[in-house]
Design a protein that fits this description.
Elements lengths: L1 E3 L8 E7 L2 E2 L2 E3 L3 E10 L2 E15 L6 E16 L4 H6 L10 E3 L3 E3 H12 L38 H21 L1
Bound molecules: zinc ion (2 copies).
């Protein structure tokens, strides 16, 4: 969906619509329900809105499906570029404007905004619960459901290099001892 800036009346508009959102691996269970308010002041466009949907995610530890309700409020600002190209290049960005989007063709892509907002709201490493025990790396048992008997030691991947060092040192010690014997 595209919003034509010139069609925004001075009094602003408010719209409600459904928008299908696809985000690579993130799947939304239902179309996002979007409420969008738009207003315009000179060359600035102010958009605020609310996005409601449900994201279907995979727990990063046990791969279980997790439904995450989304209720996102957002405010974004766009600056219209209507002038000539040269003017545009001379326009230096102030720090305040770094958070501002630029609108070059008189249209704002609402799909992009919704997609970006949803991406920001969805965790990078979703968990089915803070205490998810994950899957045994040895036998594949879901440790939330049952305990496994394969005896594989669950090693935190962050500690794996330490484990390796420990084994190396143990081997060295053993060698030392056999030399002395
Ligand atoms: Zn999990
Ligand atoms: Zn196991």
């Amino acid at each position: 969906m595209r919003l034509t800036v010139s069609s925004i009346p001075e009094t602003g508009i408010e719209e409600e619509f459904k928008l299908p959102v696809t985000l690579g691996e993130v799947k939304l269970e239902k179309d996002a329900g979007v409420t969008l308010k738009a207003s315009r002041l000179g060359d600035r466009v102010f958009l605020s809105g609310r996005i409601r949907s449900e994201a279907s995610l995979e727990c990063c530890r046990c791969l279980k499906n997790v439904l995450l309700p989304l209720d996102i409020n957002f405010d974004v600002e766009y600056v219209l570029f209507t002038g000539a190209g040269a003017e545009e290049e001379e326009h230096e960005l102030t720090s305040e404007e770094l958070d501002v989007g630029f609108c070059r063709d008189g249209e704002i892509n609402i799909d992009d905004i919704v997609r970006e907002q949803v991406l920001l709201a969805v965790p990078m490493k979703p968990l089915c619960g803070a205490d998810c025990k994950g899957i045994c790396s040895g036998c594949g048992t879901n440790l939330n459901v049952g305990s496994c008997e394969c005896g594989a030691e669950e090693i935190d991947p962050r500690l794996a290099p330490l484990e390796k060092l420990k084994k190396l040192l143990m081997n060295e010690n053993r060698k030392e001892r056999s030399k002395n014997a």
